[in-house]
Specification:
By secondary structure, the protein is an alpha+beta fold. The chain folds into 2 domains: 54 residues, no CATH class; 44 residues, no CATH class. Helix content is 11%, strand content 13%. The strands form 2 sheets. Strands 1-2 form a two-stranded antiparallel sheet. Strand 1 and strand 2 form a beta hairpin. The two termini are 17 Å apart.
Length: 100
């Protein structure tokens, strides 16, 4: 499972305070499927606002999962309104081998 990420500080008045999305630093857990046990990969700043070491993009995450399922993320496409698109988009993407 995983979490999109939330900002580390509350927003608004405390009676209705909430935390907005925080896509720059978030947590995700993996187990089995060839993933090393007990591994922590990456690091956020001191308050958890954003990643500062060993960043992994969503596209990298998808490429890694697809790799473990035996699929090539560069060849897997989906139809999106008549346009064939890669699920990992066109961004430079890598399999995160450090966790495998």
């Amino acid at each position: 499972g995983g979490e999109f990420g939330r900002l580390p500080m509350a927003q608004g008045d405390y009676a209705k305070a909430g935390r907005d999305h925080g896509p720059s630093g978030f947590t995700s857990w993996m187990a089995g499927g060839g993933v090393k046990g007990g591994v922590v990969h990456g690091e956020t700043d001191d308050i958890g606002y954003g990643a500062v070491r060993d960043r992994v993009s969503i596209q990298d995450w998808h490429a890694t999962i697809l790799h473990q399922l035996g699929m090539d993320h560069e060849k897997l496409t989906v139809d999106r309104n008549g346009l064939e698109e890669r699920i990992t988009h066109t961004y430079p993407t890598r399999v995160v081998r450090e966790i495998l």
